[in-house]
Design a protein that fits this description.
nucleotide-binding; alpha+beta; elongated; 26 strands; 414 residues; seven-stranded mixed beta sheet
Length: 414
């Protein structure tokens, strides 16, 4: 980031005034006491990454020199944040609220305040669609002990791969992943961010099971009117802190959310290389590939009946899960279902291209993410920046271009 590319502004801030600014930016304190996300800064801070929000508060009358492509906007730190700060200490705190209720912002603010008190702070980020820490589609964690804390700049310590931008259809992995990372996060205080999925029955169930599994010390509900049913169902052993969603938090549209995901994915895919992996050396999850209990003779029969090559599959008491070279005709699938009396779920290898995948270590944790680029002759090609040789692969549910644009979803044939 060249300073010549940035606009320069020198301004005065009265005590108690606040600004919000998106990076890339340079902020220099000329005089006075200034905080960024609740952490005191005495000289200069420089952020080169794009679209990182910077919350600046003047504690005393101050003067700043700001270089940025964007003009800072006036804002106000909600009084409710300061009230929550008095109630949050060590232990586990879960934050729930609808999209754009300010969960990420209050967590960044509290993390700085808690570290300033001398605590080690862990953040478990389970907002898989709008990530603060780590790549989209993962639950991730990081521990902080130095100021200032700007979570969006931190690389994750641990990751658990979900492979989608929404928890819908993945409720059990969401609960398991949050618990695994919370258990592994060695910190005095753990702050758990969650998705904005709060309104329907499945959303309420997901949040309640997370709370039941984690047994947090407190839950902070940031309410815009959508949390009434959820908060009333939380058991009384959990301390509930209910605050109003602040008006200062700007609402993001669909296009902006997609752009944020594109920037995030680009960060983890740019300058990637294709690696070739031996399918037989991997444990593969969420795909029939690399496993299954259907023998070659049955696969040959299915290939003939479906009119496409059946590669592998798994047969259960009431279903057949089959991977084929391309999608069979729907009428042929129905014929097999009538013949076997079992529901058939069929996926095509041709539809796996550019599918988002997680590269797993021997514990099943995610070491990196990538895009599936090819499957042939017992080999699988993945575009990834991960330098470690994975022990396993977990197939996701969303597709990205090499540039990070969303280009579709994984689908079932028929």
């Amino acid at each position: 980031m060249e300073s010549s590319e940035l606009n320069e502004i020198e301004l005065s801030l009265n005590a108690g005034k606040s600004l919000i600014l998106n990076s890339p930016a340079e902020i220099k304190v000329i005089s006075g006491d200034v905080e960024i996300w609740g952490a005191s800064i005495s000289s200069e801070i420089r952020i080169e990454e794009r679209k990182i929000p910077l919350l600046i508060e003047s504690i005393s009358n101050s003067r700043l020199l700001i270089r940025s492509k964007f003009h800072p906007a006036e804002t106000k730190i909600p009084d409710s944040w300061r009230e929550v700060e008095k109630s949050v200490d060590s232990g586990i705190t879960i934050f729930i609220g609808a999209s754009d209720s300010g969960k990420s912002s209050i967590i960044a603010y509290l993390a700085n305040k808690l570290v300033a008190r001398g605590l080690r702070v862990g953040i478990v980020d389970s907002d898989i669609g709008q990530k603060d820490i780590g790549p989209v589609g993962t639950i991730s964690s990081a521990v902080f002990s130095d100021l200032p804390i700007i979570p969006w700049l931190k690389e994750p310590d641990k990751m658990y791969f979900i492979g989608d931008k929404t928890p819908r259809g993945h409720l059990l992995p969401m609960v398991v992943g949050v618990r695994m990372l919370a258990d592994m996060t060695k910190a005095d205080a753990i702050l758990v961010n969650t998705t904005g999925y709060v309104s329907d029955d499945a959303a309420v169930e997901l949040k309640l099971r997370k709370i039941e599994n984690l047994r947090p010390d407190r839950v902070v509900g940031i309410d815009d009117g959508s949390l009434g049913d959820l908060l009333s169902r939380i058991p009384p052993y959990v301390k509930k802190i209910r605050i109003r969603a602040p008006d200062e938090i700007r609402k993001k549209g669909v296009a902006e959310r997609m752009e944020r995901r594109r920037i995030n994915i680009g960060r983890y895919l740019n300058n990637s290389d294709q690696v070739e992996l031996d399918i037989n050396s991997l444990f593969i999850q969420w795909s029939p590939l690399g496993g299954g209990n259907i023998g070659n003779e049955t696969l040959e029969f299915l290939s003939k009946e479906l009119g496409v090559r059946a590669i592998c599959g798994h047969e259960g008491p009431s279903f057949v899960y089959l991977l084929t070279e391309s999608c069979p005709d729907a009428e042929r699938i129905r014929k097999i279902e009538m013949l076997t009396g079992k529901r058939m779920k069929t996926e095509a290898v041709s539809d796996y291209m550019n599918l988002y995948v997680g590269l797993l270590d021997e514990q099943g944790l995610c070491e990196g993410v990538g895009l599936l680029k090819g499957i042939s002759e017992g080999k699988i090609r993945v575009l990834t920046k991960c330098e470690k040789r994975p022990s396993g692969l977990r197939f996701g549910f969303i597709k990205f271009s090499d540039q990070g644009f969303e280009i579709g979803r994984r689908r079932v044939c028929r």
